[in-house]
Amino acid sequence: ANDCFPFAVLLSYQPIWFPSGRRSVWYFSTRKTWAQAEKFCRSIGGNLASVRNRLENKMLLRLIKKKEGRYTPTWIGGSDAQTNGIWFWSDGTNYQYTNWCRGEPNNDRQRQHCLQMNKRCWDDLECFKVRPFICVKRRW
Ligand SMILES: [Ca+2]
Ligand SMILES: [Ca+2]
């Protein structure tokens, strides 16, 4: 039922815009698995968020802090589920800028294939864990 998100509710969310002005970013505090989160983002015409540079990374962290009151681990759109060690952004953005925490991605127990923003840096994590998440939508 949660997958069916009324547009009127969406209107009450305040997205932030990346500096390019072409991509808006939406924070959702509902905890979902990575795949559920990506599916939800697609249902509103977007994808889980990709990060293209340091400024965008900083903006997402600031958004998490603002919405949760602290740096809560949050899903964004990176995944190496197809081939371990080959990372993709679910929105098709080139995987170029990275901000991995020291020692990450470590593919712990060979089963970490999804990217969470963890405090100030990134960590690969089991995709079935539930986290709040950030969607990105291109300007329509
Ligand atoms: Ca992996
Ligand atoms: Ca990890």
UniProtKB/TrEMBL annotation:
<keyword id="KW-1015">Disulfide bond</keyword>
<dbReference type="InterPro" id="IPR016186">
    <property type="entry name" value="C-type_lectin-like/link_sf"/>
</dbReference>
<dbReference type="Pfam" id="PF00059">
    <property type="entry name" value="Lectin_C"/>
</dbReference>
<protein>
    <recommendedName>
        <fullName>C-type lectin domain-containing protein</fullName>
    </recommendedName>
</protein>
<dbReference type="InterPro" id="IPR018378">
    <property type="entry name" value="C-type_lectin_CS"/>
</dbReference>
<dbReference type="InterPro" id="IPR001304">
    <property type="entry name" value="C-type_lectin-like"/>
</dbReference>
<feature type="domain" description="C-type lectin">
    <location>
        <begin position="20"/>
        <end position="136"/>
    </location>
</feature>
<dbReference type="InterPro" id="IPR050111">
    <property type="entry name" value="C-type_lectin/snaclec_domain"/>
</dbReference>
<dbReference type="InterPro" id="IPR016187">
    <property type="entry name" value="CTDL_fold"/>
</dbReference>
